[in-house]
Design brief:
This protein has nine helices and nine strands. It is an alpha/beta fold. Helix 7 links the parallel strand 2 and strand 3. The protein is globular. The site of adenosine-5-diphosphoribose has 23 residues, from helix 1.
């Protein structure tokens, strides 16, 4: 009997209890920074130092935080299920907790890439990317992040994955950002969707969804125990 497939769609809320700020909560990142100043290609061309520093500070923090109970609960799920994680997050906490299959829709904070050849992607050594750090073709390295307005190349494989889900678990995302938020529309009719979030999230477009109004740590652990004991 092959294992049932669980597809997880995670957002910033899954890392909140690790101490990483979300974007749209009060006190969130987009309250402190203007997206147009730090998270677009135009910002990178206009003020490279500011954008470089914005990602350096977030990367530096990433070395100081740990996965939380939610990340570890998803690893436990792998005992009985084929767990495929699709994350909007650029942190590596799912991987550090031990999740085997993690797909990053919006890039990865610990990676950098060539400004002239997007296929040249490198693990950054340490937290600081500096002006003058160049790729093998001599161009300035940039954060390996999908900025607003840039294409999201992982959407087709992510949509394909969602179309094979027996269960989908959505954790810690306001479902505000497209195309990531559209992925829930690709699951088969028989797929049961769970959504874990302490706040109200608009789920009107998700038929039959089970909403768990909890923080990720508690809510994910409870759901995983339920699924492992069904
Ligand atoms: N546990 C679970 N969910 C939480 C917690 C928590 N402890 N704390 C906050 N949340 C929820 C919030 O209620 C909200 O629904 O996490 C969600 C965070 O939403 P956003 O800040 O919008 O983050 P996200 O949905 O991941 O943003 C998507 O937007 O800025 C871009 O590229 C960036 O990947 C990001 C994308």
């Amino acid at each position: 009997m092959s294992k049932k497939r669980i597809v997880v769609l995670s957002g910033a809320g899954v890392s909140a209890e690790s101490g990483i700020s979300t974007f749209r909560d009060s006190g969130g990142l987009w309250e402190k920074y203007d997206i147009m100043e730090v998270a677009t290609f135009e910002a990178w061309t206009r003020n490279q130092a500011l954008v470089m520093d914005f990602y350096n500070q977030r990367r530096k923090q990433l070395y100081e935080v740990e996965p939380n109970a939610a990340h570890y609960a998803l690893v436990k799920l792998e005992e009985q299920f084929d767990v495929q994680i699709i994350t909007q997050n650029v942190d590596d906490l799912h991987e550090r907790a031990g999740s085997k299959n993690v797909m990053h829709l919006h890039g990865e904070l610990k990676k950098v890439r060539s400004s002239v050849d997007e296929d040249l992607v490198y693990e950054l050594d340490g937290w600081e990317l500096k002006k003058g750090d160049t790729c093998e073709k001599g161009s300035q390295l940039r954060p390996h992040i999908v900025w607003f307005g840039e294409p999201v190349p992982m959407i087709p494989p992510a949509a394909e994955l969602c179309s094979t889900a027996d269960i989908m678990i959505i954790i810690g995302t306001s479902l505000n950002v497209y195309p990531a938020a559209s992925l829930v529309g690709y699951v088969p009719d028989y797929c049961h969707v769970y959504l874990i979030d302490p706040a109200e999230v608009n789920v009107a477009h998700i038929p039959g969804v089970t909403v768990i109004r909890e923080k990720a740590g508690k809510g994910t652990a409870e759901l995983v125990n339920k699924l492992l004991n069904e």
